[in-house]
Inverse folding.
């Protein structure tokens, strides 16, 4: 197999002034990084991540997955060291989702909630698992996928590059088939545009460059609440042009390939819809009427810090059913998976009880690093 056309596009969206996303389109390597942190920190973090990929030279004999993992670890070291030495960059981090193809395989390395998808025979398959608060809650049966999609903390990630000296990286490989289209994107696309619309958009576009533009446009038309980044590549029959995949990369970051028709008109399956069911709205309203004033829950603020909210953890029809009452200095990513599962169970309680649960972790953290 070889890589056919490829394209990448990033847009700040309609709400944010800055674009904290970065990407690489350098076949056979494709990367998306979504930075977070105050002021310019998010941009610095995601740029440091993609720079680590750009600078990488294949002087080693590592297998593709191991290579990607090594680059992600190097990126993590750089971001963490910068965050530790530069007060303006303190607490910054980034997601990273990287795909490296070799022959008939694609190696994927992943941290955070950017995603890689494979469109095959009209079916869009999410290849990566989000490292996010809501994904944890869905996995443990606490939230449905529909609830997760409208959850106010859906952008809070539980793993990131740069927030710790060590990072756990997911890596795996999938096969390539002629006609496959791969999509790598930041959550600014997936929180705004549902799977079915992604499939429809890819089918209707005249090529990957046009498809990238249409997807960014769809995210903006849906509100454009976040930076949106889309990287696409098509797989064709043939031999890879360059066997030595990562050596001497020359990377124009905005490189886009000329338009070419996308394969096979896909049919839309019964993927996860984004509509809020009437029943769900009713349940939410009832909850608001009967419990909003006294209910509290533990969640995480937009900057990833653990927080206590009054209300119930949903945004329904654009209305937040909660408000922030306390934000801790502790980051959600600083907790272990078990601790997070226990803390973010979304059980409703009194404000005092919710605060007490957070304070226990704050005390522990202060004892660990006096
Ligand atoms: Ca984002």
């Amino acid at each position: 197999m070889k890589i056919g056309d490829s394209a990448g596009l990033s847009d700040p969206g309609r709400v944010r002034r800055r674009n904290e996303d970065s990407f690489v389109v350098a076949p056979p390597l494709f990367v998306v990084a979504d930075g977070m942190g105050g002021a310019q920190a998010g941009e610095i973090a995601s740029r440091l991540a993609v720079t680590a990929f750009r600078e990488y030279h294949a002087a080693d004999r590592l297998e593709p997955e191991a290579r990607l993992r090594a680059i992600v670890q190097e990126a993590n070291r750089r971001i963490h060291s910068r965050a530790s030495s530069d007060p303006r960059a303190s607490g910054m981090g980034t997601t990273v989702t990287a795909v490296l193809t070799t022959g008939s395989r694609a190696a994927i390395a992943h941290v955070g909630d950017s995603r890689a998808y494979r469109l095959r025979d009209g079916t869009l398959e999410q290849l990566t698992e989000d490292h996010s608060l809501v994904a944890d809650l869905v996995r443990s049966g606490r939230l449905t996928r529909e609830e997760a999609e409208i959850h106010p903390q859906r952008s809070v990630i539980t793993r990131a590059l740069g927030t710790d000296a060590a990072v756990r990286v997911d890596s795996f490989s999938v096969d390539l088939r002629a006609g496959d289209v791969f999509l790598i994107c930041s959550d600014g696309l997936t929180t705004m545009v549902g799977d079915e619309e992604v499939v429809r958009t890819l089918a209707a576009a005249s090529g990957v460059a046009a498809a990238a533009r249409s997807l960014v446009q769809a995210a903006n038309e849906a509100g454009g609440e976040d930076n949106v980044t889309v990287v696409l590549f098509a797989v064709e029959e043939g031999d890879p042009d360059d066997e030595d995949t990562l050596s001497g990369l020359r990377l124009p970051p905005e490189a886009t390939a000329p338009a070419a028709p996308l394969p096979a008109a896909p049919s839309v399956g019964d993927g996860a819809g984004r509509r809020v069911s009437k029943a769900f709205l009713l349940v939410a309203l009832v909850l608001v009427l009967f419990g909003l004033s006294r209910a509290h829950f533990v969640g995480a603020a937009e900057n990833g810090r653990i927080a206590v909210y009054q209300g119930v953890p949903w945004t329904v029809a654009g209305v937040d059913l909660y408000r922030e009452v306390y934000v801790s200095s502790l980051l959600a990513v600083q907790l272990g998976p078990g601790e997070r599962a226990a803390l973010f169970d979304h059980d409703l309680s009194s404000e005092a009880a919710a605060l007490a649960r957070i304070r226990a972790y704050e005390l522990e953290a202060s004892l660990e690093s006096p």
The two ends are 55 Å apart (CA to CA). The longest strand covers residues 319-331.
